[in-house]
Model the fold of this input.
Amino acid sequence: MKEIEEITAKLIAFRDERDWSQFHNPKDLAVALNIEAGELLEAYLWKTSEEAKPEKVKEELADVFAYAFLLAEKYGFDVKQIVLDKIQKNATKYPVDKAKGTATKYNEL
Amino acid sequence: MKEIEEITAKLIAFRDERDWSQFHNPKDLAVALNIEAGELLEAYLWKTSEEAKPEKVKEELADVFAYAFLLAEKYGFDVKQIVLDKIQKNATKYPVDKAKGTATKYNEL
Amino acid sequence: MKEIEEITAKLIAFRDERDWSQFHNPKDLAVALNIEAGELLEAYLWKTSEEAKPEKVKEELADVFAYAFLLAEKYGFDVKQIVLDKIQKNATKYPVDKAKGTATKYNEL
Amino acid sequence: MKEIEEITAKLIAFRDERDWSQFHNPKDLAVALNIEAGELLEAYLWKTSEEAKPEKVKEELADVFAYAFLLAEKYGFDVKQIVLDKIQKNATKYPVDKAKGTATKYNEL
Done:
């Protein structure tokens, strides 16, 4: 079994043991992901990157991944494929010769 | 090479071709992840889950994953491990006999 | 008419001319507020505070306020009162002698 | 003193008593606002609008407002003015005859 399939299977087993599938509609999963992204961000509040505690980052990032994998599963997305497709797409939006060394957004390049 | 390692390697190659490593400190990666989580949420705004366009969800979820993988890489986290550890931890916070069929938060169970 | 009442009345007139009340349930207003908060954050992505463009901040902050006022109105909250109440509450969580000059969260003080 | 000026003055007094001005740069205020927006959203997670607890909404919305007012103050924005300006701008993006009764985003109208 592939890595992401395996993680997702574990997340689903956890969910189903608790009969939580009824709550996990895509909209609420996206809401949950946003809440966890906010908690991740809290690790950095009033701080530099270096001052953030890795243990807190780890915990919150794990939650972000959990909801992201569950949402991907709802739609039957292959995570590897959608990320590689997006990289491809971004390569067009951010051609190396224009984007190199600048953080400017594509619509202002 | 494992799946997540492979995705991460592709993301880093994309980043390094553009010399973007200088911008990608952990705090800004967490900020970027939040922005993308917000764009993902926009797929569901004023809509039911069913009305959201899967194509939009796919695009934005891919961006969320991209920044989540890049952030994990910054800390040397093994994504599979941190998610499985969190499942373990949540199993204690949400024991099946108490949590089954209810969406109540652990501190109110 | 008080200032916030006046702003809120204008927001509601704008909404009602477009017959958007049907979409503006509290949950979706909170979702909209999060999306706008993300767009506000984008003004600072890969940047220092000084590098962010005030014009972009202004636009996005206005959107955050718009949804915040609309949500407050849904519940009949008096914005001034709820903020002053929260300041009062935070004064207890963050007593001056403990909190002075430190960004530590109240539960770690 | 106008209402918003008064709220802002109270927030600044609270901040200055604790010597927190040093942490309150615009970027971190925008980060804080996002975290609070996420906590507000949590009031609605796995729930309908009706199931959300107004008391939780009130608390979190107050925090959103607090950071929004503090950020506006940093830039010297007149909150009433920027919201009214945005309404004006949105009136052009969403003309009544096109936008009435539809939640479609302006770029798809």
Notes: Chain B touches chain A through 65 residues (CB under 8 Å).
